[in-house]
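A.,

Following up on our hallway conversation. Structure tokens first:
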């Protein structure tokens, strides 16, 4: 029985029997057989349920198109926004260079696992991961909310002391919490220039182009052939070399500052870059990419909470995560175009809707943060979206699993190289 994906040159098939591609690679999801029923990934099932357009015959391209549109608008908005506390880019290019290679490597692993793992197992693993991630982010948001409350009280206290000072009263300045420095007025052009690092973008584009070439080459060779495995293995030196270069840079700069008695962080993460911390970040990057490969949704659901976990403030975490997701989703879109499986009118429509949604979402959230003076709002929104996704995928996954059980469909592990 053929459970392998169809050939890249085959014409698009309906969604329920068509292959599903990862949001950062040309490697396909499994192709269900006629007797085994639909075996699409949980995330793709949600996309199919939400889409009744006739263009759904190529709906495997819809997910990366929407992610790319939302990420592009978010990045465009973010590079025109100043850093909330420092005169540095709001996108942390050091962290982007650290995580992007491992993220793309993990996506390749996730795509391979999606071929082998049964539908129900993917659903269970993703629900467990998303519930854990959203819970962790929610409690992180609560801690940030409490810290912001103390900070707001301290600011109000200092304002009252300042008003008393005008009346000749004595002012006492002995607070544990220091309010943020007032932001200097800068032009939009100055903010835009300060948020763009051409060196970091060039390195990221080099990694992006390298993976693009390898993925395109892989689509033109037989699955599990020697050439196929050689091309897959070539992704390792590309990803590891860039990660090692950035990791050594962070480790060296962090060590030099500690020896000089300077405890200022070398990047937005408020952790000391030890070997264990760097290995932890590499593991989490691969994990995030694996989830993106399993779902076809990019690694943003993992990267955002991870950046918060290592001490990155919400505004920078959001900007950096969407910046990295732009590269992974755009890689998939370009591959679809080269494979002639890209429904341009439908994809452009979805991309334009996502562009508007991403821009206005960023705009409204930023306004809400400024109005309430609480960046923890971003964390609560992130955790809510992840938790809602877990619930939705749980409902869809249970329904489809029950359907497969009633129809006595095969629900075990598949062979990666079965023809």
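Then the amino acids I'd put at each of the 419 positions:
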């Amino acid at each position: 029985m053929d459970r392998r994906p169809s050939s890249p040159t085959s014409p698009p098939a309906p969604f329920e029997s068509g292959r599903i591609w990862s949001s950062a690679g040309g490697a396909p999801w499994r192709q269900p057989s006629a007797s085994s029923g639909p075996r699409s990934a949980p995330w793709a099932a949600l996309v199919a349920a939400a889409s009744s357009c006739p263009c759904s015959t190529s709906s495997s391209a819809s997910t990366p198109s929407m992610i790319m549109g939302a990420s592009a608008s978010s990045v465009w908005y973010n590079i025109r926004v100043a850093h909330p506390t420092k005169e540095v880019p709001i996108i942390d290019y050091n962290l982007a260079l650290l995580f992007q290679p491992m993220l793309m490597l993990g996506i390749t692993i996730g795509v391979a696992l999606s071929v082998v793992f049964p539908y129900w197992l993917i659903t269970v693993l993703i629900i467990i991961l998303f519930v854990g991630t959203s819970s962790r982010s929610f409690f992180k948001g609560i801690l940030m909310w409490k810290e912001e409350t103390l900070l707001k009280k301290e600011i109000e206290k200092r304002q009252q002391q300042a008003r008393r000072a005008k009346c000749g009263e004595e002012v006492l300045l002995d607070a544990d919490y220091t309010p943020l420095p007032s932001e200097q007025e800068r032009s939009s052009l100055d903010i835009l220039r300060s948020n763009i690092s051409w060196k970091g973008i060039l390195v990221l584009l080099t990694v992006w182009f390298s993976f693009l070439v390898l993925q395109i080459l892989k689509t033109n060779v037989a699955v599990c052939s020697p050439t196929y495995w050689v091309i897959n293995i070539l992704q390792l030196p590309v990803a590891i070399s860039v990660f090692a270069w950035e990791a050594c840079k962070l480790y060296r700069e962090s060590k030099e500052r500690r020896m000089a008695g300077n405890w200022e962080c070398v990047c937005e993460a408020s952790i000391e870059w030890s070997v264990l911390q760097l290995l932890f970040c590499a593991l989490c990057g691969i994990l995030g990419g694996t989830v993106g490969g399993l779902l076809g949704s990019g690694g943003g659901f993992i990267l955002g909470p991870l950046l918060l976990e290592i001490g990155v403030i919400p505004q920078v975490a959001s900007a950096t995560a969407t910046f990295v997701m732009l590269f992974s989703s755009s890689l998939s879109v370009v591959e679809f175009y080269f494979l002639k499986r890209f429904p341009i009118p439908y994809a452009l429509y979805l991309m334009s809707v996502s562009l508007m949604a991403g821009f206005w979402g960023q705009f409204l959230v930023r306004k809400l943060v400024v109005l309430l003076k609480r960046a923890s709002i971003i964390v609560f929104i992130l955790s809510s979206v992840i938790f809602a996704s877990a619930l939705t995928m749980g409902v869809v996954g249970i329904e489809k699993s029950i359907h497969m059980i009633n129809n006595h469909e095969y629900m075990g592990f598949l062979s990666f190289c079965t023809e």
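The two ends are 8 Å apart (CA to CA). Curious whether your intuition agrees with the design.

B.
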